[in-house]
Amino acid sequence: MLTQDTAVEMKIQDRLDHSDHVWLALAAHNFGLRNIEDARASAQTANSDPDL
Fold this sequence. Notes:
Blueprint: H1 4-9, H2 20-31, H3 33-45
């Protein structure tokens, strides 16, 4: 579950939803969105799935 503030910041409408996009939002909040974006870009460069 995301906090209300995090849900608003990450544009998540159902903060109780446990799907992958909520976990990604939570990771971005905790680890930093820029770091998550960099990790996904690195995965794509390495021909890996950036969503895993």
